[in-house]
Design goal:
elongated
């Protein structure tokens, strides 16, 4: 089954007309996108957008062979400006099937928001799932369908939709996930592609044609990183960035290394804000005993954060006492760090670690403060050495270090 993406943007396109925002100002070349519309095997058109004939011509295709036009967006009535020769666009009712003379079969998928999703099965059995912007399959997902060869959806706006598809088994390791409905809220340039790689997805320029079921689509493309380290200062946005990197994965285990502080109301409010941000499907473990988690099989881990792991470990071994530090504390902390790094090196799980970047300010006045700064720097360097991706977040903007 051949899929041509005539457009990959939100309905308003990218850049949006008369929009002065920074993202629209920098959307040039391959980052310029028309409203999302898909052409399947030259015979099925999913969503009718402005100028479809010209979009098809730019992609080297014609719409003369189109026998069916299906609408997915949550609007009533026929699309405006239907080009001459195209059949009238229709919407398939939720749960119903449509058989095309070309041999394609289409099932309408119920969503958790207005609109219609479509599961398209080609004549040779390849399956393509397409969802409109801002939508995810309504529960329960259609688990009997099995893994699709391609999924086209709003990955940036609804990463939880991708997580839901993975949980239901519709998206697996061999599914080509294509991000569409991209608007002016997506990060510009390579940052978009870096974020999508973390979600196991990709974005392609308008006019790209892919063969559904031809996997891997690019043998040189980087896979989903197993180990990621996100560094940043206080309130830099490092935790938000770390959570974003796992938002498209179900059953994430959030490891809170600080534990709870019942007598600290400010700390409790911070913890509550973190919990409200996280998907409801994530599970929380309050522990700083990270090695058993890394050594066990299981879903992805988000460790927030390593600096608090270091604080609690130094508390446990009495590292703040100068005499104990000199006698045994330094050696014991070094052994703990090596044990943690070895477990990270050998883990089979996807892990995103968060830590504070330190050492860029004034030198701490106390020996214990300087000791913590130095040891956190050593810990960050050791973990970075075992991580495929390392990011530094400044003012909410991630910079790729590796």
């Amino acid at each position: 089954m051949e899929l041509t993406l005539l457009g990959t943007a939100a309905p308003e396109g990218l850049p949006r007309a008369d929009c002065p925002c920074a993202n629209c100002s920098t959307a040039v070349g391959a980052e310029t996108r028309a409203a999302t519309s898909l052409l399947v095997d030259g015979t099925l058109l999913l969503d009718l957008t402005p100028g479809p004939a010209f979009a098809a011509a730019r992609a080297g295709h014609s719409l003369t062979g189109v026998r069916q036009v299906l609408l997915s967006h949550p609007h009533e009535g026929p699309a405006l400006g239907v080009p001459a020769g195209l059949p009238a666009p229709v919407r398939v009712p939720d749960g119903q099937d449509l058989a095309l003379i070309s041999g394609h079969r289409v099932r309408a998928v119920a969503l958790d928001s207005p609109g219609t999703g479509y599961l398209v099965t080609g004549p040779e059995g390849a399956r393509l799932l397409y969802l409109p912007p801002g939508a995810a399959p309504a529960a329960p997902a259609e688990q009997e369908v099995g893994e699709c060869e391609a999924a086209v959806l709003d990955v940036v706006g609804r990463p939880d939709a991708l997580a839901r598809l993975r949980e239901a088994g519709l998206v697996g390791a061999s599914t080509d996930v294509l991000a569409v409905h991209l608007d002016d809220t997506v990060p510009p340039g390579r940052e978009l592609h870096r974020r999508l790689v973390a979600a196991g997805a990709r974005a392609v320029p308008d006019g790209t044609t892919v063969t559904v079921g031809a996997y891997p689509w690019d043998p040189e493309a980087p896979g989903v990183p197993r180990r990621t380290l996100v560094l940043g200062g206080a309130r830099s946005g490092k935790s938000v960035e770390a959570e974003r990197r796992l938002a498209a994965w179900p059953d994430v285990v959030y490891v809170a290394t600080a534990g709870s502080r019942s007598d600290d109301t400010d700390w409790a409010s911070r913890i509550a804000a973190h919990r409200e941000r996280r998907p409801s499907s994530w599970r929380t473990e309050e522990t700083y005993d990270l090695v058993p988690l890394l050594e066990a099989e299981g879903p992805p881990l988000l460790v927030d954060c390593l600096s608090l792991w270091l604080t609690r470990t130094m508390d446990e071994i009495g590292a703040w006492d100068d005499s104990l530090w000199a006698k045994r504390g330094k050696a014991e902390l070094g052994a703990r760090r090596e044990e943690l790094v070895a477990a990270l090196r050998g883990t089979r799980r996807t892990v995103v670690n968060v830590s504070n970047e330190t050492g860029q300010g004034v030198v701490p006045a106390s020996p214990s403060g300087r000791r913590f700064r130095d040891e956190l720097g050593r810990l960050n360097a050791a973990v970075a050495g075992e991580s495929e991706h390392v990011l530094l977040v400044v003012a909410g903007l991630p910079t790729v270090l590796r």
